[in-house]
Design a protein that fits this description.
Largest sheet: 10 strands, mixed
CATH architecture of the largest domain: 2-Layer Sandwich
Number of domains: 3
Number of helices: 6
CATH topology of the largest domain: Pseudouridine synthase
Helix content: 10-25%
Oligomer: single chain
Distance between the termini: 13 Å
CATH class of the largest domain: Alpha Beta
């Protein structure tokens, strides 16, 4: 059953709950995902099943694309609609000024994460500091808003303007922080109303299957999911690879991750841990 799924996460459920539900549906021992979506966010989640969970590190680095609905003139502790509103002011932004503010955010190469996030400082998650009432200085992180597109006109709903924006961002980028920063640049505040992840790496929302519709038939085999180069080893290396031997320049000069192939089929997936030094991420019980 080892493999991966492209899931369309529904609203109102945590990413961890998605994995727990899939374990029950599939009868799997393990499930893991490639990046947390907040409970009220929807869209693309890449979920690994059983031994494929060891390979999630190979897709964590991918850029992501979102469609965000941002409301101007509101603020909350979580920077979205999931907690009590702490500030309510009148704002009348223009499309032109929103675009100028987005250009400013696009030029920045760092961002301060929300306090209600799982980013760790000194071994403790930021939301744990907030829950305990401990002040903490949140350092900025190297992330990037790569592209944006304003998808709608401004709408006036419940005495506040809101807008839909599509963004393409690097790993670790917080859309809630973008809403906060956009509001501040426009002289007020703003929070996230809705969020849909439409792309994670090369996987698009069109590839995703609604959580309730998933079956074992939807699992993508590891070899179909990861297009990696192959390094062929001689027969004497087969038991050594199965025991997790460290490989070096005598076997390959590839920089990166690769399949180890043999007369018995694919034995393992190895990664470069130092210059021309390689260790296994996953060893297959039988040649594939």
């Amino acid at each position: 059953m080892d493999g991966l799924l492209i899931v369309d996460k529904p609203k109102g459920i945590t990413s961890q709950s998605v994995c727990l539900k899939l374990k029950r549906i599939l009868g799997a021992k393990k499930c893991g995902h490639n990046g947390t979506l907040d409970p009220n966010a929807t869209g693309v989640m890449v979920v690994a099943v059983d031994s494929a969970t060891k390979l999630l590190k190979l897709i964590h680095e991918h850029d992501k694309e979102y469609i965000a609905t941002i409301v101007f003139g509101l603020d909350s502790n979580t920077l979205d609609m999931d907690s009590d509103i702490t500030k309510d002011i009148s704002m009348n932004p223009s499309i032109k000024n929103i675009q100028l503010a987005l250009e400013e955010l696009k030029s920045r190469k760092t961002q301060i994460p929300p306090l209600t996030s799982a980013v760790k400082i000194d071994g403790m998650k930021l939301y744990e500091y907030q829950r305990k009432g401990i002040d903490v200085k949140v350092p900025s992180r190297n992330v990037e808003l790569k592209e944006y597109e304003i998808l709608s006109d401004l709408r006036f709903i419940n005495n506040h303007y809101e807008i839909d924006i599509k963004i393409s961002v690097s790993k670790g980028y917080f859309v809630r922080s973008l809403a906060r920063d956009l509001g501040e640049l426009l002289g007020g505040c703003a929070i996230l109303k809705d969020l849909r992840r439409t792309k994670s790496g090369e996987y698009k929302i069109e590839d995703a299957i609604p959580l309730d519709n998933i079956t074992k038939d939807n699992i993508i085999p590891i070899f179909s999911f990861f297009d990696l180069p192959k390094v062929y080893v001689k027969d004497y290396m087969i038991p050594l690879v199965k025991n997790g031997i460290t490989m070096d320049e005598r076997q390959t000069s590839i920089h990166g991750t690769f399949y180890v192939d043999s007369s018995m089929g694919i034995l393992a997936i190895y990664e470069e841990v130092d210059n021309l030094k390689y260790k296994p991420i996953l060893i297959f019980k039988e040649g594939k």
